[in-house]
Amino acid sequence: MKNSSILLTAAMMFTAIFATAQCNNHQASTSNNDHATSNVVYVQNWHYNQTPDIVGVAMSDKNFATLVAAVKAADLVKTLQGDGPFTVFAPTNAAFDKLPEGTVANLLKPENKAKLQAVLTYHVLAGKVTASDIIESIKRNGGGFMTKTVQGDPIYASIVDGKVVLEDAQGRTSTITATDIEASNGVVHIIDTVVLPE
């Protein structure tokens, strides 16, 4: 009886130590992963071990705070959480800051919801289009190609100085600075300038 009690106590101690070690390893792994991928702006949902949807990807990084606020104001959260797949050219806060002063505040007003929706959906393509797909299309079409956005207006992609550049309907250009951020319902590419429909 005494030996059984000792064995039971030892087993319980081993289980507690093992659980603590597993928890510590999990936290270390999460911390290291977040650090390693901070430049890629991608955060894994460690609790459920699932890839976030497009809205989740944007919400996972403070550099997309303006984009997230705009998506919410435009009532596009559910749309971008849908099955898709979608390809999103995601402007950073710095990209929105390049717009004339007051532009973002004006777009976020309830009365400008339709205009905001048009701007945001101009950053979205139907289907999943990876960086290699874009580059292949550019090469196949002699150095550039035009594609239709969800908003309806086309956007033009080409390679300038080794980087993929988008030209919007107003002739403005935006460079893709990071590519292929996986989402459960598509893919996100980061751009340094907001693109605008006609």
Describe this structure in words.
A seven-stranded mixed beta sheet has the order 2-1-7-6-5-4-3. Strand 3 (144-148) and strand 4 (154-160) form a beta hairpin. It is 42% helix and 22% strand. With 198 residues, the protein is of the alpha+beta class. It has eight helices and seven strands, in the order H-H-H-H-E-H-H-H-E-H-E-E-E-E-E. It has helices spanning 2-36, 54-59, 65-73, 77-80, 93-97, 103-107, 113-121, 131-140, and strands at 86-91, 124-126, 144-148, 154-160, 163-167, 173-183, 186-191. It starts with a helix and ends in a 7-residue tail after the last strand.
Strand line-up of the largest beta sheet: 2-1-7-6-5-4-3
Largest sheet: 7 strands, mixed
- The low-confidence runs, each spanning 5 or more residues with pLDDT under 50, are 1-48
Briefly note the structural class of the backbone: alpha+beta
pLDDT average, as an integer?
A: 81
How many helices in DSSP terms? Answer: 8
How much of the polypeptide forms β-strand, as a percent range? 15-25%
N-to-C CA distance: 84 Å
Q: What is the global morphology?
A: globular
Oligomer: single chain
Q: Measured on Cα atoms, how large is the radius of gyration?
A: 23 Å
Helix and strand sequence: HHHHEHHHEHEEEEE
- Kindly state the number of beta strands: 7
Helix content: 40-55%
